[in-house]
């Protein structure tokens, strides 16, 4: 089947009133938007995908962001045509939505279920990919972005990153926090000045996680996922400790020095250095 025929089928299903067809068509982008794929052939389709991030259905929005994450990784130049409002919607999907959190009864216990978690996870994953694939496309000079080179994209993405840094302060889901600490670690290499702008708040977040893990470790209740999160925090600390001018941030400096006295942290650092 020729791509023109595939494109026609996709366009038809992207406009389908049936959510299932629309979802499948959106998800299909992940499979053919490979590296070196001729961008001129799918530019129109991708522009349609950008507009669908405003869909009312959270599952559709999740599928859109997941496919766009693949495109950002494989074909980042296509994002130069993104409507600036696209990044506004990314920012909105990073937020915790109280109306999507419900309480369910499991026997004698009550458990909170966050229906917005999969969408939020996709949005954070998009930010992580953007840090690696989209920001490096633009000129970075001492933490300041050149408007002429950015053409709007970097500025909008920078606002997303700033919101992300503040949003992490309210986030408590382990899977998302692991992504968050990975993002911070990568930003330390690309633009550490973003991190330094809110280093005290990030330090507080890391401190809570270190203390929680240490407490659970005493009772041998840390669990694999909590261990992954703890390792992400340690890697993040190491990355921040190597950023320029970090010595001007006493709160982090004191936290990092104190953390290195923890035998669990020492063990992880040795493991990271060995690898």
Structure in a nutshell:
The protein is mainly alpha-helical and 275 residues long.
Radius of gyration: 21 Å
Helix/strand/pairing category? mainly alpha
Provide the low-confidence segments as ranges. 139-155
Shape: globular
What's the domain count? 2
**Secondary-structure element order, N to C:** HHHHHHEEHEEHHHHHHHH
How far apart are the first and last residues' alpha carbons, in Å?
46 Å
Itemize the secondary structure elements and their pairings.
Blueprint: H1 3-14, H2 19-27, H3 29-32, H4 39-51, H5 58-74, H6 85-93, E1 101-106, E2 109-114, H7 117-133, E3 140-141, E4 144-145, H8 147-150, H9 153-167, H10 174-190, H11 192-196, H12 199-218, H13 224-241, H14 250-259, H15 263-274
Antiparallel strand pairs: 1-2, 3-4
Helix pairs in contact: 1-2, 1-4, 2-5, 5-7, 6-9, 7-10, 10-13, 12-13, 12-14, 13-15
Structural overview:
The protein has a two-stranded antiparallel sheet with strand order 1-2. The longest helix has 20 residues, at 199-218. It is globular, with a radius of gyration of 21 Å. It is built from 15 helices and four strands. β1 (101-106) and β2 (109-114) form a beta hairpin. α2 runs parallel beside α5 (58-74). The chain has two domains: 1-92 and 121-167, Leucine-rich Repeat Variant (Alpha Horseshoe); 169-275. It is 66% helix and 6% strand. By secondary structure, it is mainly alpha-helical.
